[in-house]
Amino acid sequence: ASKVARLCQKMDAIADADGKTLLDNSVVWFGSGQRNDRTADNTQRLPLLYVGSGGGVLRTDAHLEFEPSTRLANVYLTFLSKVFGANDAAFGDSLGVLPALLA
User: How far apart are CA 33 and CA 94, in angstroms?
Assistant: First the structure.
């Protein structure tokens, strides 16, 4: 986690051409959705972190808690379609983007 923090600090110190920082225009993902233990608590309570707003697309400075039925694939689909512009993207068993992640 300390290496991710250092990376983000360095990215935040680099000015991008549009006047924002490299971190503002990026998304740094820290977390994992893979577990071998399939108990309800372990598959529904995954701590995940993203840093950066993807160019102002993603909500920042927030702690979000989703319903247990929310699919991690929906997070990935939100990044693909809204941050990276892959509007025809599909990801795993995703059901759609998560508006709560958007700015």
Answer: 14
Q: What is the value of pTM for the model shown?
A: 0.83
As a whole number, the mean pLDDT across the chain is 89
Amino acid in position 81: S
pLDDT value, residue 33:
61
Q: Residue 86 carries which side chain, given as an amino acid letter?
A: A
26 burial level (CB within 10 Å; 0-12, 13-18, 19+): buried
What element of type H or E holds 29? strand 28-30
Report yes or no: 30 and 48 within 8 Å, Cβ to Cβ.
Answer: yes
Checking if the pLDDT of 88 tops 90, the result is: no
